[in-house]
Amino acid sequence: MFDFLDSGQYDVLGAFWVTVQLTFYSAIGSLIWGTVLAGMRVGPTPLMRAFGTVYVNAVRNTPLTVIIVATSLVLYQTLGITLAGGDSKGIGFRLAVLGLIAYHATFVCEALRSGINTVPVGQSEAARALGLGFFQVLTLIVLPQAFRSVVAPLANVLIALTKNTTVAAAIGVSEAALLMKEMVENESDAIFLVFAVVAFGFVVLTLPTGMLLGWVSKRVAVKR
Amino acid sequence: MTPMSNVSVTKDAAPTAENLVVLDNVNKHFGALHVLQDIDLTIARGEVVVVIGPSGSGKSTLCRTINRLETIDSGTILIDGKPLPAEGRELARLRADVGMVFQSFNLFAHKTVLENVMLGQLKVRRAEKRAAEEKARSLLDRVGVANQADKYPAQLSGGQQQRVAIARALAMDPKVMLFDEPTSALDPEMINEVLEVMQQLAQGGMTMIVVTHEMGFARSAANRVVFMADGRIVEEATPDQFFSNPRSDRAKDFLSKILHH
After folding, report:
1. Residues of chain B contacting A123 with CB distance shorter than 8 Å
2. What's the topology of domain B20-106+176-259?
3. Over the stretch A64-105, which tens digit does the pLDDT of each residue have?
4. Predicted ipTM?
5. Which residues contact B215 (CB under 8 A, 6 or more apart)?
6. Which of A38, A44, A135, A146 gives A109 a disulfide partner, CB atoms 3.0 to 4.6 angstroms apart?
């Protein structure tokens, strides 16, 4: 039944490994960039607030496919930005990570901002009263508590991100979806199985993520 | 004790040893509500001033303007001879010298009691970790919660939390302590343990501005009572004078409501 997998023609594990790597780097990047954006949006500087707001609303409402394709066509092919050069495989991978970060950071930012709203205003008042500056209040008091309250929504973003890595196929990154396309073309007699294999692969990646972070969410919750 | 001595510090900006906090003609609005009206108030070093008044009279707002948690619309506030900075580093530095205790404790919920008391020392005063811990433990001991050092705030009773909050403020070696209704959120049986700590502070010579409804504390610990109503300071007097012989009708009315049931 699954003999198309035994032919050695398709590197399913290899493709999913690329998916995992895309997810890993994009998740870390999104978390960092999203946190910076959230900091801008709650900060005292009007220019930064404006930038954060415009960025989030512009990027969040742009289809991911447009962003990913733009990284390749605009950044690479037109402007020649390769992000540290190398072969086209490496360039495509890094451009895809860049696009995924740019897009998912907006969702991280908004999740985090809702988390910031759960931190009572007295917490930052007490911190300011001690003489802490804005950046210290944000990083020492507000964000640590905000993060704890948004683990579950961030898990949603991470699961969406995992599945959204398939868009990288649009610029030729050899991850799971590109392999699926190839298998669909070559193995039309086993088409349901091809879909089943790919779907199973993603469930294996996302289901434990959701369960683990659900558990973490309960563990780190701030008691008030 | 000459709390009412009106040295004219507000005119010359030179720091004077006597007057630690000077509010001169301070006004503030919340929208249409004129919440502080022409407030003049001078607090001498080592003085304990209790601010009382009906709710909505502006006493909490007054307390919060002194470390600029509330901005003011006009007037000047001097602390130790220096005008209150507008924003940024200067303001943060000044706030470090002004301890504040809130009605709702506001202990950092994600940090242990010990970490709460160490944080300001480490991040603002840049103290060494060992020195900060030692000081934190001795302060916790002083307010009687040394055995709770490793717990989180939510695991403590309200009275314990408020005493930790006092220790947290004291860890900065403040010049003046602001208390914004420190016992109003407490169960009755926990009020005294907090008031006792405040009594000790007062006896130790700390300059304190206390917004409270605890008339017993005002009587026993205050050098001066400031009575506020409708955004104005209506009366200032020694506790004895104020409670036994209030001059203004507003104060008489207020006292009759709270002292006789």
Report:
1. 106, 108-109
2. Rossmann fold (3.40.50)
3. 999 999 998 888 878 878 777 777 778 889 999 999 999 999
4. 0.86
5. B52, B243, B258, B259
6. A38
